[in-house]
Specification:
This protein is an alpha/beta fold. α1 packs parallel to α4 and α3 packs parallel to α9. Helices cover 43% and strands 11% of the residues.
């Protein structure tokens, strides 16, 4: 009989090999994104690698479990060559895709700001037909990763194929030894998959050993996050308030008293143009070291109502669109648009404007079907969707995502000029996205920056200037409110933005060519989900039911913004911020200027208690709104 125990030893060698390559993938993740990690201490980075071994062990045992079970069976010695081939093939079939997932996350982290999870699978649909472009843009990373995967498969074969037998004096000793090793292997597997001897298996929350989410992502591996997120219950039925009124009064939407009521609104029916800028973090606007990448937007902001503390409600485009067009924040792992909750009752901007006879439309230069935007616009009541298919000129396609911003915005104007007034239209730009390319004729026009995205930021700013120059010539322009924001942030290069607060800081400003806005507290916290109620307030469109999470920017007060990412809730106020890791007893409070979370505060205790109540109210309201399909309540008296 062949020594069955030798097979178990080979399987455990494969586990160690898998852990080694997860460490290699983690090192690549760090080195490739060194511009994000260079400010972190060496001690923190080493600790992240050390703690990460626990998650690597769990992921490795999960990936090797099928071949481990296969080794328990007493294969005859003459079947050994077959066992080696089956074991190696099954091992590679399961673990090579997982390794590739970790290696792809080296760059993918810059798309969504976190490790790959099961709910992120929808993005693979966006990559269809674009793979050659990605390889061309990241050819060096592709070559390195191809070598790593090939080395992994080769070493796995050598470990499985290596010679070695364990000889026993009789069958009874062989079977006894094998049975004992099977029991030990099972015990190790259970402990390994659970990540230790603690009462509950490790989860995302156990990786939150740092206040900086970037380091927590370094701790994790993508295999673990994908497996743990599969089939996970997205949101819980939290019940912090028994009385609904106690919950509602803590939310931004409970505030009343619009400054528009005192000053008055413009008389003619007003048009609305919403401009969502792809990946435009606040740090990209304005001068840095005496140089600006956005001269046009800077000049427009000087004539606009600008909010200094504006936050995105998510980290992905699919989340930003839902927040702006439907007032729904991203307080769960899966985007609302691609979740089963999208069939819930909700009031999109198009639906709310329909009664006032507005013509409504949404423009996006991406390929039709991208992130389900076209389908979602129908649900949001938007009448017309214009994508690359409607544009109809493939010569202006960037070869990856869709139509370049400059020609698409000009084409959009030709369509808008034919709309019946009043109208609401929205455009989501595209070009400031990985792989950060500009049209060939502008390659030498815009300078490279400290990070790749800055060149495309300059290009989109130029495209917007041309758009506004032509729009200003149109008769509808003088009666139009422009809302400019971003879908989410992207790569950071300024230290003050490389943190959990900077991850959500986006521009949000309002421009009207003829109307003078009333006095507003521009230091107030605002967020993307405030855009919808702001527009209803500006247009004086009363509503019988309200989503209490958002609030008009013309209504002042002590407002907060709430975000959620990788199992961490964050509440942002003007003076403090809360950080609540799921599973921990209570949130930590930091000064809003302590963006790296260096010093948790317990005082002022009354303010901390107040903010905790606000955070809990937002969580309960959103979760109940999703599970109970009740995101709206009667509008409070104004």
């Amino acid at each position: 009989m062949f020594g069955h125990s030798q097979r178990l030893i080979k399987i455990f060698s494969l586990i160690l090999l898998t852990m080694l390559f997860y460490a290699v993938a983690r090192a690549e993740f760090m080195v490739w994104n060194w511009n994000l990690f260079h400010s972190k201490s060496v001690g923190d980075i080493f600790w992240a690698f050390f703690v990460g071994m626990r998650f690597d062990l769990s992921a490795a045992f999960c990936g090797v479990a099928p071949v481990l079970l296969l080794s328990f069976f007493p294969w005859p010695v003459r079947w050994n060559p077959l066992w080696e081939k089956v074991t190696w093939g099954l091992f590679c079939l399961i673990n090579v895709p997982f390794l590739i997932l970790n290696l792809v996350d080296t760059e993918f982290i810059n798309f969504v700001g976190r490790r790959f999870t099961y709910d992120t699978i929808f993005i693979l649909n966006e990559a269809q037909g674009k793979m050659l472009n990605f390889v061309g843009s990241y050819w060096l990373l592709f070559l390195i990763n191809t070598f790593i995967v090939a080395a992994f498969m080769l070493l796995a074969w050598k470990l499985v194929h290596r010679s070695g037998k364990v000889h026993w004096q009789n069958h009874w000793q062989a079977w006894s030894a094998h049975s004992a090793m099977v029991f030990i292997a099972l015990a190790f597997a259970v402990v390994g998959i659970r990540g230790g001897f603690q009462r509950k298996p490790i989860n995302f929350v156990n990786a939150n050993v740092f206040t900086a989410p970037l380091l927590n992502n370094l701790v994790l591996n993508s295999t673990f996050t994908f497996i743990k997120s599969y089939g996970a219950k997205e949101i819980k039925h939290e019940k912090y308030f028994a009385d609904r009124e106690d919950m509602l009064k803590l939310l931004n939407g409970s505030r009343v008293g619009s400054s528009l009521d005192r000053q008055g609104r413009p008389a003619p029916p007003q048009n609305i143009v919403i401009i969502m800028l792809e990946s435009f973090g606040s740090e990209y606007l304005g001068p840095v070291d005496g140089e600006t990448r956005t001269p046009f937007l800077d000049s427009l902001m000087k004539k606009s109502l600008v909010f200094e503390h504006a936050y995105a409600n998510g980290r992905r485009s699919i989340e930003g669109v839902a927040a702006v067009m439907a007032g729904i924040p991203a307080l769960m792992s899966e985007p609302f648009i691609s979740s089963h909750f999208t069939s819930n009752y909700f009031l999109g901007l198009g639906t709310l404007l329909a009664d006032k006879k507005y013509s409504t439309s949404f423009f996006h230069g991406g390929h039709n079907g991208t992130m389900y935007f076209d389908s979602f616009m129908q649900s949001a009541g938007v009448e017309k969707y214009y994508g690359s298919t409607e544009y109809g000129n493939a010569a202006d396609d960037d070869g990856v995502w869709g139509i370049w911003d400059e020609p698409f915005l000009q084409w959009m104007l030709t369509k808008v000029n034919g709309f019946k007034q009043p109208f609401m239209t929205s455009v989501f730009t595209l070009s400031s996205h990985q792989p950060f390319k500009v049209p060939a004729k502008y390659v030498d026009t815009f300078k490279e920056g400290r990070i790749p995205i800055l060149k495309t930021i300059s290009y989109t700013d130029m495209a917007l200037e041309k758009f506004f120059t032509e729009a200003a010539k149109q008769p509808w322009f003088k009666n139009t409110l422009f809302v400019i924001t971003a879908d989410h942030t992207s790569l950071h290069y300024l230290p003050e933005y490389t943190n959990e607060v900077g991850d959500y800081k986006v521009p949000l400003f309002f421009y009207h060519p003829t109307y003078k806005f009333p006095k507003v507290d521009t230091n107030m916290v605002v967020q993307q989900i405030d855009i919808l109620p702001t527009l209803l307030d500006f247009l004086k469109i009363p509503q019988k039911e309200t989503n209490y999470m958002g609030s008009s920017i013309f209504v002042s007060g002590d407002k907060v913004a709430v975000t959620f990412n990788d199992g961490v809730y964050q509440l942002l106020a003007n003076d403090y911020r809360l950080r609540w890791v799921l599973g921990s007893s209570e949130p930590e409070m930091f000064s809003i200027n302590d963006r790296n979370g260096d010093k948790a505060l317990t005082e002022p205790a009354a303010r901390k208690a107040e903010l905790i109540q606000k955070l809990k109210a937002n969580i309960q309201y959103f979760n109940e709104g999703m599970w109970d399909n009740k995101l709206y309540y009667p509008t409070p008296a104004r």
